[in-house]
Amino acid sequence: MSEVFLVPVRSTDSRATTEQAIAALWRRAGLADAFEARDLTAIKVHVGEPGTKTFMSPTIVAALVGSVAKTGAKPFLTDTAVLYRSPRDNAVTHAQVAHDHGFGLQAVGAPFIAADGLLGADEIEVPVNGKHYSKVSIAAGIMQARSMLVVSHATGHLGTGLAATLKNLGMGCCSRKSKLRQHHGQQPHIDADACTACGTCADWCPSDAIAVHEHATIDGHKCIGCGECIAVCRDDAVRFSWGIMGASSRSGWSSMPRRSCAPSQAGSPT
Fold first, then answer.
1. What separation in angstroms does the CA of 109 have from each of 27, 69, 70, 87, 103?
2. N or C: which end of the chain has fewer CB within 10 A?
3. CB 260 within 8 Å of CB 148
4. What sections of the chain are H helices per DSSP?
5. Three-state secondary structure call for residue 219
6. Percentage of the residues of the chain whose pLDDT score is greater than 70
7. Residue range 175-202: average pLDDT?
């Protein structure tokens, strides 16, 4: 059974207090043993969407970056492109969001590098003994890193109730191809009585699968099941049949770099 180490850290704490707490956690958990000199170490983070504050404190991440660097490893912050329309759907504006939210090189001591390349297509296929898939596509930067530190905040999730490190790994380390495969089989539908035909869902649909006339309709052949429409609808008109799991809605686990560890922190739902 795994051990869990906890240290109290509050948003009102000073930087020095936060750094002391993270240093104590690092020592007690023996995290330095997960890294070696000359490692290119991926620090998997979620830098948040523009206008939100639901992400790990950059002060905590900076303290972890410093601890990794002391082992002789070369840490870099990383994440992958999202499927929905967002500044985080490409490497350029994703890096800008990271900077704006306090994760810039000068602030945390490590660069932000998108693990799946400019448009989320840089990937390495990994064979797995999965129920639905025999191989999965993992972001190339994740697979090429020699060690990894996963920094997660707990968040509310419509499908699972709670998401944190497992989702940060299982979906957050995948290329766009694997994300599409994971969502396949769960498609939304429109409640015509609730729909106001405002067009917001169509504006945000990344696959142009939604048309709006008297009410919105979704083309099941174009829909990728990303869930963006349910996230942006303010009228509760987009529905999912959560009790139905598609035949391809779960993918197998990938083999990850040989050393990884994963501190987490509770946060607000995203």
1. 20, 9, 12, 23, 9
2. N
3. yes
4. 15-29, 58-70, 91-100, 105-108, 140-144, 165-170, 176-183, 200-204, 228-232
5. coil
6. 86
7. 87
